[in-house]
Amino acid sequence: MPDKIKVYCPYCKKQTVHKVKLYKKGKTRKDAVGQARHVEKGKGYTSKIAGKVTVYKQAKNPTVILTCTVCGKKHPKTIGTRTKKVLELTKE
């Protein structure tokens, strides 16, 4: 995937050049209500822990963050096909 692509900007309402950056998920909060509930539910279990089983897929649908060069707004776009390898798009 190139560093810059021309796609539709929903804010400018026209096709503009966008900078492409790979989306990286941030850290999860340990004090979030849902996370605290999950930890409390799993207490006391030594061999099995309540929760979803991790499913490992062969490839991912990577999400990229597109930044419009005209208005500067950002919006995500998921690449439709599954890719085995996601190359580092931009070097920071």
Descriptive report:
The protein is mainly β and about 90 residues long. The protein has a domain of about 60 residues: Nuclear Transport Factor 2, Chain: A, CATH 3.10.450.80. It is about 10% helix and about 30% strand. It contains 1 helix and 4 strands, in the order ββαββ. A 4-stranded antiparallel beta sheet has the order 1-2-3-4, with no helix packed on it. The longest helix has 10 residues. It is elongated, with a radius of gyration of 19 Å. The protein starts with a strand and ends in a 14-residue tail after the last strand.
How many strands, which pairing sense, and closed or not: the largest β-sheet? Answer: 4 strands, antiparallel
Strand content: 25-35%
Terminal CA distance reads 16 Å
In DSSP terms (H or I, runs of 4 or more residues), the helix count works out at: 1
Question: What is the overall pLDDT average?
Answer: 82
